[in-house]
Cyclic di-GMP phosphodiesterase response regulator RpfG
Amino acid sequence: MQKNTLQTAAKIAHRLGARDPYSEDHAQRVSWYAWRLARRLRLPKNEVEDIRMAGLLHDIGKIRFSSKVFRNVKEHPSKSILKQIKKHPDTGKTILEDQGFPPKVIDYVYSHHEREDGTGYPRGITGENIPLGAKIIGIADTFDALITDRPYQKRRSLKEAFLVLRKLSLSSFDPVLVETLITEITINGL
């Protein structure tokens, strides 16, 4: 079941990639970093695989974005586009529920933009209320965004990315998880 579900996840992520090539590659990298962080934490194998799958699917709600959102990737989004972007966890949750994905995977996808201090979305939950898998994916997502060239933002060096993550660990991210990812990348590279 796990392998079939992972294959289904890859196919769904590929469909998003047909609309936005950056998203498919980003999903693969987020899944990779999240999987490595979960393994370094020595989480149970089934939990590691759920996190890996959720990393692959974390932005799947973007598949229902209007073409306008994908056309405007060269600039920072307007308020109306930002409002649409902030709905992607809800949309992703609905898509994954309809496809019969495991509840944990759905919860991780739904919660990956939540932040320790409650400033995240869609629910604005804090600390211990955020599932561990979602915290891991949120950090992996941010890390990849920092070290990858985007139309509106140049990539940062690893040193700069680590500094940003450490700064975010003062409010948005769990500092233990941030340091664990930094250790993993420092020891084993990208």
Remarks:
- The domain at 2-188 is CATH 1.10.3210.10 (Hypothetical protein af1432).
